[in-house]
């Protein structure tokens, strides 16, 4: 009767036994972390739908798609460099994932000052990213790109661009706010008793947002 | 480190003011009542709309309804019934009430988020209802909202109605997500001692899997809703092809209407199971309790729920046979559709085998459960017909389809909602619902819905198209169809009005019903074992229950009572080793 004993079955059945076992399916995972993982799974479906939608309108539209490496090129010091801004943005975001991971680590070592500072640094990277995105939007708008049309080709280009990067930028902005709030609470010592798992949960969200960007980068900018 | 143990030791903060207790409440039970009440009220709107439509069809011109109003009524009726009534009441209502009680938790894991979920739901309902009052009225695009017609001039409500509809859906999705994350996490991580997942009542399994479906299917509706909103408001062309209207070229070009259909049905088919799986779960428990028999093939039932859930994501295009597709795709989707019938049929057999030689008490919940089985069976069988491309194409867009989906996802789940309310009302209020009124309500509703929908299959074979406002002067529809339509309308009105019996019963029994005690049905699952009825804030008094067995120990041979509650350990029962544990 006592189900707290270790399951003895192995293989597929053992796996299932573990999952359905007493009290919690994921041992040593807090409620907050479980919930964040499930949320991210759901959010993955949202971004997948966006990307699938973008790809299919790209196939149905009867006007040629603009050449992205031309559209997203900058002329810096007389030099015409394709995709340079996006490269920098991607770099910034990936770096921020690094600082985030360090923050999580510091959190678990209970170095709360370092953890908070690293989180704030991550947030600053996030702000830089959103800033560059705003710059990119401005540049494209000045060049006449609108959600309903653009001089370079298919109208769906602008539509998908603004919608997808906008939705992602929204995620980054939320992430910046979330990071800042949690960082300040960490700094204040609010989590001394409960431990610093919250840093990791925040990190999960942040890494996810970065990962999504990699896909947007690959499918929208490089293709 | 799960917090479950901490929660147990934590001081329970009990809200004291009226507002924090009943309005801005974070208690899952109060939120459940709020959800259910709102859902039932908005469901009444949908019911009235269906009555108006039936009047127009059965007795053309008898009420002041033109074609525009008909389409608007039809669209709002369908959308409200599917989303704002059934989805909300199964997940937000029953899910909220039963999950924590059945798994032995004090509340949902994040009560505050849970509370927000309800308020977002309420806002979405208000936005939806607001569309009745905007210029042009609510959208009349059909509940499927297919573009391009949904947002082009000429479709009723293409001015504002469609915008409000899409905004309302987006808010609803946010609400469902906030609630859903809570339900899933609670089931996974907040069960009490001894409550393994294979000891959970099937109700919890059904709602759990349905919630996962919701979390994975609603994103597609969210994205398609957002894209259509952009098409409508700022003129993007996601779903809008090059189009001429009234002799002039519209400002759209190159979008894909079929893309919308894929996204919509990627949501829409799982949606059917978001409604059906909780119904499956609830009805399993009702049958087991009221037939005093342990559920037949518990594990099989669980696996059937899970596999239906998985399969429901790969059948969506069976709604799009008439949109045209590569024949291999049609073949694929027809096959998966038929495959999904296997676990479904298995469930029906298991219900029947549970009843077999059971000690069937024809209580109101049992009556509704039996009615569910036969109704679902009919709807499921016609579904097998429609799943095949060659049969579907001639029947598509006829009343055969209307009959099919009303049987399978309209009436059947509603019957479970009724049965479950009769079953759990005593726990919620401490009083029984009136039995006589309940039986009258049951017979009118059950026989009535059969009289309404059975003839519709035949009308479908005659070729009577669905979504038509009037059926005069179509040479291919025989005159006799009209008398059948009039008959259906009369029954529909009777059934509609008879729901007042139910509402009256709810109100009357709240004050005058016979006191029920804590466990009137002699059931085993945890929600019947709370120290107080109705359960107080925190549900379990000072310490959480400890579970020793599955939820279906009925008719235990040798036991003094014919049931053994989940909290009774083996030593406490005078039975030989008869342990249905695994
Ligand atoms: C007594 C109860 C009901 C009656 C009399 C009724 C009647 C109707 C009528 C007359 C139509 C329009 C058919 C047409 O013109 O094509 C309709 C459509 C529909 N109903 Fe019901 N209905 C009832 C309950 C329900 C329930 C419980 C559901 C929940 C799923 C539901 C879901 C729908 C849907 C999804 C549509 C399709 C709307 C569309 O074509 O866009 N109905 N119903
Ligand atoms: Cu389907």
From TrEMBL, chain A:
Cytochrome bo(3) ubiquinol terminal oxidase is the component of the aerobic respiratory chain of E.coli that predominates when cells are grown at high aeration. Has proton pump activity across the membrane in addition to electron transfer, pumping 2 protons/electron. One of its GO terms (cellular component) is plasma membrane. It comes from SAR92 bacterium BACL26 MAG-121220-bin70. InterPro entries: Cyt_c/ubiquinol_Oxase_su3, Cyt_c_oxidase-like_su3, Cyt_c_oxidase_su3-like_sf, Cyt_c_oxidase_su3_a-hlx. Heterooctamer of two A chains, two B chains, two C chains and two D chains. It holds the Pfam family COX3. One of its GO terms (biological process) is aerobic electron transport chain. This is Cytochrome bo(3) ubiquinol oxidase subunit 3. The chain crosses the membrane at residues 37-57, 81-104, 116-137, 157-184, 204-222. It comes from the Bacteria. It is found in: Cell membrane.
From TrEMBL, chain B:
Keywords: Electron transport, Heme, Iron, Membrane, Metal-binding, Respiratory chain, Transmembrane, Transmembrane helix, Transport. It comes from the Bacteria. One of its GO terms (cellular component) is membrane. Its main location: membrane. InterPro entries: Cyt_c_oxase-like_su1_dom, Cyt_c_oxase-like_su1_sf, Cyt_C_Oxase_1, Cyt_c_Oxase_su1_BS. GO terms for biological process: aerobic respiration; electron transport coupled proton transport; respiratory electron transport chain. The keyword Metal-binding applies. SUPFAM superfamilies: Cytochrome c oxidase subunit I-like. It is found in: Membrane. Pfam families: COX1. The chain crosses the membrane at residues 32-53, 74-99, 119-141, 162-184, 204-230, 301-322, 328-352, 364-387, 399-422, 442-464, 484-508. One of its GO terms (molecular function) is cytochrome-c oxidase activity. Residues 18-548 form the Cytochrome oxidase subunit I profile domain. It is a multi-pass membrane protein. Belongs to the heme-copper respiratory oxidase family. PANTHER family: CYTOCHROME C OXIDASE SUBUNIT 1. This is Cytochrome C oxidase.
């Amino acid at each position: 009767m006592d189900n707290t004993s270790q399951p003895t079955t192995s293989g597929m059945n053992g796996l299932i036994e573990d999952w359905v076992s007493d009290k919690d399916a994921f041992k040593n995972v807090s409620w907050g972390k479980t919930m964040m993982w499930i949320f991210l799974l759901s959010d993955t479906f949202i971004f997948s739908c966006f990307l699938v939608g973008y790809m299919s309108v790209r196939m149905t539209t009867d006007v040629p798609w603009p050449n992205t490496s031309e559209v997203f090129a900058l002329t810096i010091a007389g030099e015409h460099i394709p995709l340079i801004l996006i490269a920098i943005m991607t770099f910034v975001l990936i770096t921020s994932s690094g600082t985030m991971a360090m923050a999580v680590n510091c959190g678990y070592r209970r170095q709360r000052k370092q953890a908070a500072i690293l989180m704030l640094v991550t947030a600053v990277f996030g702000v830089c990213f959103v800033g560059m995105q705003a710059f990119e939007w401005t540049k494209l708008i000045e060049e006449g790109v609108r959600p309903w049309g653009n001089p370079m080709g298919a109208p769906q280009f602008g539509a998908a661009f603004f919608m997808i990067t906008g939705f992602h930028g929204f995620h980054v902005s939320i992430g910046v706010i979330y990071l800042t709030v949690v960082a300040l609470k960490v700094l204040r010592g609010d989590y001394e008793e409960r431990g610093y798992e919250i840093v990791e949960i925040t990190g999960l969200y942040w890494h996810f947002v970065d990962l999504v960007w990699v896909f947007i980068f690959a499918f929208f900018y490089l293709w | 480190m799960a917090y479950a143990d901490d929660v147990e030791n934590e001081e329970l903060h009990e809200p004291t003011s009226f507002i924090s207790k009943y309005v801005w409440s974070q208690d899952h039970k109060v939120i459940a009542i709020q959800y259910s009440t709102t859902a039932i009220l908005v469901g009444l709107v949908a019911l009235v709309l269906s009555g108006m439509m039936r009047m127009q069809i059965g007795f053309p011109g008898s009420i002041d309804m033109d074609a525009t109003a008909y389409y608007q009524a039809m669209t709002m009726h369908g959308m409200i019934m599917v989303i704002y009534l059934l989805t909300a009441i199964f997940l937000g209502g029953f899910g909220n009430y039963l999950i924590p009680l059945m798994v032995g938790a004090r509340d949902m894991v994040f009560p505050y988020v849970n509370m927000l979920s309800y308020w977002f739901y309420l806002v979405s309902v208000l936005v939806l209802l607001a569309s009745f009052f905007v210029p042009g009225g609510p959208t009349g695009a059909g509940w499927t909202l297919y573009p391009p017609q949904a947002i082009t001039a000429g479709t009723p409500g293409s001015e504002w109605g469609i915008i409000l509809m899409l905004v309302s859906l987006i808010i609803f999705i946010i609400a469902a997500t906030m609630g859903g994350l809570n339900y899933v996490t609670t089931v996974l991580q907040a069960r009490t001692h001894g409550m393994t997942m294979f000891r959970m009542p099937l109700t919890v399994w059904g709602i759990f899997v349905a919630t996962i479906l919701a979390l994975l299917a609603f994103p597609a509706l969210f994205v398609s809703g957002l894209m259509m909103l952009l098409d409508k408001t700022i003129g993007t062309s996601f779903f809008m092809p090059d189009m001429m209207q009234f002799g002039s070229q519209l400002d759209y070009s190159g979008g894909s209407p079929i893309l919308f259909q894929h996204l919509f049905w990627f949501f829409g088919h799982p949606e059917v199971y978001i409604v059906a799986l909780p119904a499956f779960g609830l009805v399993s428990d009702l049958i087991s309790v009221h037939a005093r028999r342990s559920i037949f093939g518990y594990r099989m039932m669980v696996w059937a729920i899970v596999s239906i859930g998985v399969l429901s994501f790969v059948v969506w295009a069976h709604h799009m046979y008439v949109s045209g597709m590569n024949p291999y795709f049609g073949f694929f989707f027809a096959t998966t559709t038929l495959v999904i019938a296997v676990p479904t049929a298995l469930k029906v057999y298991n219900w029947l085998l549970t009843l077999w030689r059971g000690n069937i008490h024809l209580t109101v919940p049992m009556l509704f459960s039996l009615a569910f089985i036969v109704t679902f069976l009919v709807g499921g069988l016609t579904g097998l017909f429609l799943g095949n491309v060659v049969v579907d194409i001639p029947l598509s867009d006829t009343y055969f389809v209307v009959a099919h989906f009303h049987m399978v996802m309209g009436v059947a789940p509603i019957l479970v909602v009724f049965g479950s309310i009769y079953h759990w009302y005593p726990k919620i209020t401490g009083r029984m619902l009136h039995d006589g009124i309940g039986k009258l309500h049951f017979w009118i509703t059950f026989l009535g819905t059969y009289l309404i929908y059975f003839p519709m299959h035949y009308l479908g074979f005659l070729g009577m198209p669905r979504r038509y406002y009037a059926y005069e002067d179509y040479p291919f529809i025989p005159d006799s169809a009209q008398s059948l339509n009039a008959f259906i309308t009369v029954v529909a009105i009777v059934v509609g009005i008879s729901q007042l019996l139910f509402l009256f019963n709810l109100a009357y029994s709240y004050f005058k019903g016979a006191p029920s005690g804590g466990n009137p049905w002699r059931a085993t699952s945890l929600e019947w074992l709370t120290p107080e009825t109705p359960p107080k804030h925190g549900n379990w008094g000072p310490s959480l229950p400890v579970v020793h067995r599955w939820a279906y120990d009925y008719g235990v041979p040798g036991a003094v009572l014919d049931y053994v509650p989940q909290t009774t350990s083996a030593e406490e029962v005078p039975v030989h080793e008869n342990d249905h544990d695994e």
